[in-house]
TrEMBL record:
Belongs to the peptidase S28 family. This is Transporter. PANTHER family: PROTEASE S28 PRO-X CARBOXYPEPTIDASE-RELATED, SERINE PEPTIDASE. Pfam families: Peptidase_S28 (PF05577). It comes from the Eukaryota. The lineage of its organism: Eukaryota, Fungi, Dikarya, Basidiomycota, Agaricomycotina. It comes from Ganoderma sinense ZZ0214-1. One of its GO terms (biological process) is proteolysis. The keyword Phosphoprotein does not apply. The keyword Lipid biosynthesis does not apply. Keywords: Glycoprotein, Hydrolase, Protease, Signal. GO terms for molecular function: dipeptidyl-peptidase activity; serine-type exopeptidase activity.
Length: 539
């Protein structure tokens, strides 16, 4: 009997944990995080050899740093923050005279990056010369570090992702982590205990949210990092982030854009009519009998999100293009730029969901489980296990960043339904983090104004930082390349623009597929070399 009960509880426990990955498709993760590109480290498993022939630990070797739990209260102690490191390109050299007249030995720069809102273990490529980080190290004789962001992967100040633990999950703490690491890390390399800023030059590199952190860290802590590189950096926190869909609308095939816009206009007018029979018929065209109209409208965004993972070298066989082909190709013939029009596009889009797409994103889950967001009793919302990146990211957007991917305002063409409003997403915050926004709050109110005021957003005055943006990046409207940004940059804050997608310029192979991406990469390395050559030892 005892054995049976034990077994039963063990199975229950395992199945909760096991159930988690399949529930990652559940309601609250419906909006994609910005995230830098993930791709397999092409050099993983190969021996890593330093410039002088010494065999080094594998890229996947894990190191830990004793990071402060709370930078506002160091007496609370430390937690283990995971990081990866290599010094395969590091060279010692003779540096310039410092102010006290003593000539000291110094090597190339330390290139620190965090992959941001992900488990860092999949991002060791950012140590290598397959990425811009490693390219900079290789050119400047530097060493690379990939530091996991607090509350992601295995870097957790406390053992869970509860509201109480999230007291120390803020942009301010993440910024302070990068500074405290640079000042205190004893890097596992020759002379690694004497490389703090002042003794060695540091470069901070980041993409996407971590690109914003790069700007924020340099803005709020001058003098720590000699140079910075911020790719697709979402520096301006925006709550109603309808601009997410603008680069997609403007760069997707014209016929597909025209037809998607026509269908979405129709969907919005049917929903606005309050005609329940017509609304039900519309939902069944897609096989999506969701109880809430805004959940249905939001489900259609799922066809647009694959745009974010495109890269200049993406083949034609990507999910986004499969969707457009389904709408635009009839019997082997493509629609003209104006599309086929509403009637055909509506049926074709519905058929695409019913025949293939629903199963691709929902598997065997029923429609409310997969795409509904109103069942507050679903344990999905309140799981506090560590390693749930979607939950940790949602805390940041609910409290500080906003970034709700919504329909455009009336009068502006939109490929996203106007039924999807900031309230649709911010209501979910109160399900996920009960009590965190006041016991009666129906929606969260992220303090994006505070973030932009403290860290300067688009108007950042940081020097020795390169901002690199891509015209096809869906996050472009939050970067310094946004239409609303009046800061044009300068020679000490160059704003580089390629035809890339999200963080394309961080990946060396994307430079091979796009001349403008390659030009950004080459120019950035030149700026880094110039700024590092001006560095002087001060400690
Ligand atoms: C990148 O680094 C690897 C060693 O990690 C080296 O074999 C390769 O030649 C380098 N690639 C380039 C383009 O320098
Ligand atoms: C890198 O190291 C090599 C070998 O010591 C040296 O010739 C070169 O000038 C160094 N490059 C930089 C940018 O310091
Ligand atoms: C070069 O190799 C020696 C031992 O062979 C080692 O002590 C030294 O730290 C190495 N330097 C670098 C920069 O790898
Ligand atoms: C539909 O219902 C909403 C909410 O009850 C109401 O504000 C709106 O005027 C109605 N629209 C039409 C076309 O009846
Ligand atoms: C029309 O759609 C097809 C299929 O997605 C695409 O290959 C083609 O480039 C589009 N043509 C125009 C003019 O938009
Ligand atoms: C928003 O952030 C700013 C800057 O940190 C702060 O001064 C302000 O009190 C915050 N507002 C709220 C409502 O928390
Ligand atoms: C940025 O600067 C411009 C020009 O000075 C100003 O109009 C704008 O309000 C500033 N934006 C923010 C977010 O502070
Ligand atoms: C030393 O300083 C001079 C003048 O500031 C500069 O031209 C040179 O590149 C510096 N060298 C190194 C290795 O930093």
């Amino acid at each position: 009997m005892v054995v049976l009960t034990l077994l039963a509880s063990l199975v229950l426990l395992l199945s909760c944990v096991d159930a988690f990955p399949s529930r990652a498709k559940g309601p609250a993760s419906i909006l994609p995080r910005p995230s830098i590109p993930h791709f397999e480290n092409p050099l993983e498993g190969l021996p890593v050899v330093s410039r002088n022939g010494t065999q080094l630990p594998d890229y996947t070797h894990v190191y830990y740093f004793n990071q402060l739990i709370d930078h506002n209260n160091p007496s609370l102690g430390t937690f283990k923050q995971r990081y990866y490191h290599t010094y395969e390109f590091y060279e010692l050299g003779i540096g310039n005279l410092s102010d006290d007249g003593v000539r000291r030995i110094l090597g190339g720069p330390i290139i620190l990056s965090t992959p941001g809102e992900v488990d860092a273990s999949g991002y060791t490529t950012y140590l290598t010369n397959a990425t811009l980080n490693g390219r900079i190290a290789q050119t400047l004789n530097g060493s690379t570090v990939v530091l996991e962001h607090r509350f992601f992967g295995s870097s957790n100040p406390y053992g869970d992702l509860s509201v109480a633990s999230f007291r120390v999950h803020t942009v301010q703490q993440a910024v302070a982590d990068l500074v405290y690491f640079a000042r205190n890390a004893q890097l596992p390399m020759p002379g690694g205990d004497a490389l703090a800023p002042g003794k060695a030059p540091w470069i901070l590199v980041g993409g996407s949210y971590a690109g914003a952190l790069t700007s924020y860290t340099m803005a709020s802590n001058p003098g720590v990092f000699t140079a910075g590189y911020a790719s697709s950096a979402v520096v301006q926190a925006i709550v109603n982030f309808w601009g997410y869909f603008e680069p997609i609308r403007q760069n997707m095939p014209a016929n597909c854009s025209a037809d998607v816009e026509a269908v979405i206009t129709h969907v919005d007018s049917v929903i606005a009519s309050n005609d329940t029979t017509a609304i039900s018929a519309l939902k069944s065209t897609f096989g999506l009998p969701l109880g809430h109209n805004d959940d249905f409208a939001a489900a259609l965004l799922q066809n647009l999100f694959p745009w974010q993972s495109l890269q200049p070298d993406s083949g034609p066989n990507q999910a986004f293009y499969q969707f457009c082909d389904a709408l635009e190709v009839q019997n082997g013939v493509s629609a003209p730029a104006s599309g086929w029009g509403l009637d055909y596009a509506l049926q074709a889009w519905g058929t695409y969901w019913k025949s293939a797409f629903y199963y691709q994103i929902c598997g065997d889950d029923d429609v409310e489980t997969c795409l509904g967001t109103y069942d507050i009793t679903n344990p999905f919302w309140t799981y506090t296990y560590t390693g749930n990146a979607a939950r940790s990211w949602q805390w940041l957007i609910c409290t500080q960043l906003g970034f709700q991917q919504d329909g455009a305002p009336t009068g502006q063409p939109s490929i996203a339904s106007r039924m999807v409003t900031p309230e649709w997403g911010l209501r979910q915050c109160t399900y996920r983090f009960p009590g965190a926004f006041g016991s009666n709050a129906a929606i969260a109110s992220p303090n994006s104004t505070g973030i932009n005021a403290v860290y300067e957003g688009w108007n950042t005055t940081v020097e020795n930082i390169v901002f690199a943006s891509g015209t096809r990046d869906p996050w472009k409207e939050s970067t310094v390349a946004a239409d609303g940004c009046t800061n044009a940059g300068s020679d000490s804050q160059p704003h580089l623009l390629s035809d890339g997608f999200h963080c394309s310029d961080l990946l060396i192979r994307e430079g091979a597929a796009s001349a403008s991406v390659k030009s950004v990469q080459d120019t950035a390395v030149e700026y880094m070399a110039e700024w590092i050559s001006q560095w002087k030892q001060t400690a």
